[in-house]
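Ticket #4471: structure output looks truncated?

Reporter: J.K.
Steps to reproduce: submitted the chain below (573 residues) through the standard prediction queue, then opened the result file.
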Amino acid sequence: MTARILAVFYAFGGVTGLLAVLGSAPGSGRRGAIAAIAVSALLGAAVLVRWGPRWPRATFHVPVAGATGLIGTAATLAPDPLTALALASIIAFVAVDAFFFFRPVAGLAHLSVAVLGISTVLVLRGDVPVPTVLALDTVVIALGTVTRALAWRASSASRDPLTGLANRRGFDDALPELLAAAGRRGEPLSAALLDLDHFKEVNDTDGHEAGDRVLVRVADAWGAQLPPGAVLARHGGDEFALLLPGLTGPVALAEVERLTALHPGIGVSCGVAQHIQGETKAQLMRRADAALYVAKDAGRNRCALDGAAGTQLSTDLASAVAAGQLGVAFQPVVELVGNRVIGVEALARWDHPARGAVPPDEFIALAEQHGLIAPLGELVLRTSLVQLTALRETTGVQLVLGVNVSVRELVDPDYPQRVAALLAEFGWPADHVVVEITETQLESDAAVVRQNLETLMRLGLVVAADDFGTGYSSLSRLDVLPVQHLKLDTSFIASVTTSPRRAQLLASIVALADNLGLGLVAEGVETVEQDAELRRLGVLLAQGWLYGRPMAVTELAVWLADRSVDGAFSIAG
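Returned output as attached by the reporter:
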């Protein structure tokens, strides 16, 4: 829009210059020079129409300043005072441009240069009375003032008064322009919808003023870190919308995850979609909304990418799952009292034939978006049972198996029975299986999820809240969560040796879990110092790279043999 409006002013300025030449006194050699300036303005208009939409906004300072120079030069060359005034009056276009395109300070700078410059030119000519020059200045300044007021009013209609971001109207105005620009340039465009998790609870508990402060804090954090050209809007309530020109879906997903990590104390669910050529803006936003629903359905406080732009990878994943081509890595879980290896956590791995190792976060998100998470989960469980049963028969070691479960698996009423059937098939004791579900997923509104977890516990399986301490359940809901174990998030362990307050908090959680009869596992242990602090605080179970990295079952067998003496685990080994 900026390029088109400036092109119109350049075109009308050029026409005005030509008309002024025609109305000036004949016989002056300067008429040709003025006509050349007018033609150059018309050519400038053509350039703005053709290439201007691709320029960043800051670039438009150059053509606006250039217009001031052209007008001043033409007024200097005018053969008579009337023609000089006619040409000088074009400076009113600069006044409109300055305040319509730029912020107040920059607009005032352009207006000041234009008014002072054209006034100096007319006064130095000597044939234009000073009062007439001042009259022209008054008109130009009035136009600039009115334009600024109108631009501010129009902007405020598209702005959210609380956060200062664009509102829904501003977002809806920006989206077609960015779509058109992306089409012209052949560049990608992605959109994201972001929703603050459990925001209603903030308003209900602490009041709307506290909720407003949260919104402002989030808007300020994101707004300060936006990539160039991005448009961030408050879509309404606690929902934000983001447009990311030039970014593909996966890159936009990473960018959104970076932004949401700027305030770890506030959970955010977000959905990202990349524009597909030929679809409307409404279709793009519907796909972003669908991805947002996937993120919420998966337990909130996460980002999901719509799969429409990456169907090939999802197709490959479906084929790999159907063919049983995904692998499993096992990370040891140790009992600190006695230094014994008691179990392992099963972690899915996918080695794509063309891309190589695909990050678990990426292919698990794809599985959730494309209805593959249930067969993927079953494949991981079956593969783990096959491999660990063989290990048990070879070594006589009966390990506890921990498996990660998605809420999308738990919404199936038949899930517990399928798990029980698999355990029976391999003769695996139910009390040696830990079903791990993230704390945020435990907040699912689906009653069947809670029922299935309770059924699993009745069957003898152990249910653990994974990544505990990162969601909203926190300590206040420990007595009602359908879990028997808590797996402390790595963020607790990372600073336990450097933050006395974190150590004290961990000590309180240990005592509380003990009083409630809950098991406690510390994840992400990487140093001997962290291990020593966990032992001092009374943590009984732990896992992390200090004890063992995720490994294939063949490596696990060797690892167990090399690092165990009479069943005791040796850190030094």
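Triage note (M.O.): checked the attachment and the full token line is present. The chain is about 55% helix and 15% strand.
Status: closed, working as intended.
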